[in-house]
Amino acid sequence: MRDVDYIYAVACIRAKEKTLLSDSDIQTMVGMKSEKEVLSYLKERGWGDGSSSEDMETILSIEEEVQMKLLTTLGVSEDIIDVLFLQELYHNLKAAIKEICTGRDDVEAFYENEKYGKDSMLRIIREKEFDKLPEHMQEIAPKALEVMLSTRDGQKLDIMLDRACLDATEKAAVSTKDRFLSEYAETKVVIADIKIAVRAANTKKPLKVIEEALAPNREFDVKGLAKAASEGTKSVYEYLEKTKYKEAVDALRDSFSAFEKWCDDYVMGKLMNQKTNIQSSGPIVAFYLAKQNEIRTARIIMTAKANGFDEESISERVRKMYG
Fold it and tell me: Percent of the chain at pLDDT above 90?
């Protein structure tokens, strides 16, 4: 897009930013008595299509579709959109391989995707038409299929494709000329590496497995992180305390749920920097990601309400808002 196109698109986003939920809105939702009451509140804010019969998943699905259409309407390039949906794309590849190899329908849910949704991904894998996949998936897909066919090891498949997704994200971060997208993609890889290391330490995974799972990034030495993870959680904490991610350790010592909240809030902090930007994709992408954060948070609150969680427990799980 040209600078003048970005200026127009960002002006549209600035108007839409006024509709975003604030931290105050989220606390109001947390204080509500039921899932139904939260759902009604969101409908009043314009979520859904106005149907009185909408349930939680329907209204959240509609909101996701609206935001996806916004990206294309405002002219965001396909390269940028592809980076935003890398994780969903690799999930669909993983789900398709598992379904074909196990013979069980819907082993995992598929994300909606115009080019690589459930039907198209299943057809590509079943017919071994790997050249129809994005270039970054064409080499790993047949290898992943062979691993699953020969071992039936779903966990091994997960590690293999999760690592491939991180590698593709890191490559995008390095190669893109869009500064914001580069920073966002790099942050996603770093956060994912930290999560992998923590889980590996908790489950006492061997060093080789951890090294295979962690993706190289430009923030820290992943070999050092892998070694720390193989030695236990205390070593992971000590390693992270020497990096700029030391605040993650406080959250981890509280709970893994608190840590995941810290991860999402850390990414949100990166997005907040785009509020003063007017001539790049940054504000548009940041708005889209902020809406995804809203949708995740709304799901957390309504699910918690449906399962009888108290307000304090829900407050510990909700994320910082962009609005």
Answer: 57
Q: Which of 104-118, 197-211, 235-249 has the lowest mean pLDDT?
A: 104-118
| Amino acid identity, position 294 | E
Distance in angstroms (rounded) separating the CA atoms of residues 307 and 302: 9
pLDDT (0 to 100) of residue 89: 95
Is the model's pTM score more than 0.70?
yes
**Residue 75 is encoded by which pair of tokens?**
């002219």
Interior CA angle at 84 toward 60 and 146, to 5°? 100
- Residue 217 phi/psi, 5-degree rounding, is -140, 175
**Confidence band (pLDDT; 50, 70, 90) for 1?**
low
